[in-house]
Amino acid sequence: MENNLIAKSVPTKANAAKPAFKQEEKRADGVFLAQKDAEEYRAYRRRKRLGEISAAISATESSLIDGQDVQKVCERAVRLRQTAVKIPASKLTQAAYYLAGSKVALDCVVGGNGETLPKVKAYEAKLAVKRKAREITAVITPSFLDACRYGEIKKELRRIARAIGKAKLKVRVDCVSYNASLSRVARVACEVGASFFSVPYFAGCERLRLDLTGGCKLEVSNVESVEEFKRLSEIGVGRIVTDKAWEIYTELLKEADEETRALFIEQKEVEKPKLPSTPNPQEKSKKEEPTPPPQEPKKQEEPKRDEQGDGDRGLRLPAVCPQYPTPSETDYRCQLVGTELKFL
């Protein structure tokens, strides 16, 4: 008996390289693997899946909400190798201390809820860049958006872009009530040279990518669940902003372990086919020699005696007497008469 594992292909969403969670179309039905090969294949699939998860998480951005510890958020961002941490201007110095020496960028939000003067937004952005912020998220004025004052929005964004210099500019819209207005603001963001156009998550937000040109990418914030994260990763948005990055990462790891275990059925004992054994030459020669039949013991025959009673000295007649040939027509007949032989 030999212990084997049966490897079965389970349709998963982590087998394709791009996007990270796209399902493969063609899979094998099943194949028998030895226990050692099955363990190696299991480890390979898990390493591949972890690499895909790490690549997807590293393209995200963490956000700090009210009540969270700045140190905890920054340490998790460093551990997950995220792109940036979105943080308000009041906690920028503290976050810069915890992110010192790492590749995680500081993304400072300026303008509060958006209802501030353009001069104030430009001044906050300039101070944030001096405090080592490499990305600036500018919240546009909601009243300008409601009144469709796109010229005022464009002037405001250009003023902020001149203040931050070489830092990346992100245009953020918190109101998603008018899809037509979002499309118009997205085109304005591309005209001022913004790197990202940021909107909160809603159904159909990925369609805004069609309005972005000139290297401007779509950024989706307020992502709370694993399903939303997978969907946006499959679509291929520019960046995902979430305050649940650690929870999403943990859930994806659990799914990866379950998918790896689902590839294999429990161990089964499989009968090994019996091959004809090759006997030794000596045994083969012994088998080829015919075995003689068993011989019965010979009975001792009593000596025959002659009629005169000579005992053992009497002559024994042969069992079969010789037959003399009968005379034919060509034979010569003769008779001995005296001393002469006469032919008849």
Question: What secondary-structure arrangement, pairings included, does this model have?
Answer:
Layout: E1 2-7, E2 31-34, H1 35-58, E3 60-63, H2 70-80, E4 84-88, H3 92-98, E5 105-110, H4 118-130, E6 135-139, H5 142-146, H6 150-164, E7 168-172, H7 179-191, E8 196-200, E9 217-221, H8 226-235, E10 239-242, H9 245-262, E11 268-270, H10 281-288, E12 334-337, E13 340-343
Parallel strand pairs: 3-4, 3-10, 4-5, 5-6, 6-7, 7-8, 8-9, 9-10
Antiparallel strand pairs: 1-2, 1-11, 12-13
Characterization of the model:
This protein is 36% helix and 17% strand. It has 344 residues and is of the alpha/beta class. The N terminus is likely disordered. The chain contains 10 helices and 13 strands. A hairpin with a 2-residue loop joins β12 and β13. The radius of gyration is 51 Å and the shape is rod-shaped. The protein starts with a strand and ends with a strand. α4 packs parallel to α6 and α6 packs parallel to α7.
CATH overall fold name of the domain at 61-244 = TIM Barrel
Q: Which CATH C-level class of the domain at 61-244 is it?
A: Alpha Beta
Fraction of residues in β-strands: 15-25%
Mean pLDDT: 78
Which architecture of the domain at 61-244 per CATH?
Alpha-Beta Barrel
Q: What is the oligomer described by this structure?
A: single chain
Strand arrangement within the widest β-sheet reads: 3-4-5-6-7-8-9-10
Measured as a percent range, the helix fraction is: 25-40%
Over the alpha carbons, how many angstroms does the gyration radius reach? 51 Å
Q: What is the number of helices?
A: 10
Structural class by SSE content: alpha/beta
Question: How far apart, in Å, are the first and last alpha carbons?
Answer: 98 Å
Query: Secondary-structure element sequence?
Result: EEHEHEHEHEHHEHEEHEHEHEE
CATH fourth-tier homologous superfamily of the domain at 61-244: Aldolase class I
Largest sheet: 8 strands, parallel, barrel
In total, how many beta strands? Answer: 13
State the shape: rod-shaped
Low-confidence segments, ≥5 residues, pLDDT <50?
1-17, 22-28, 306-315
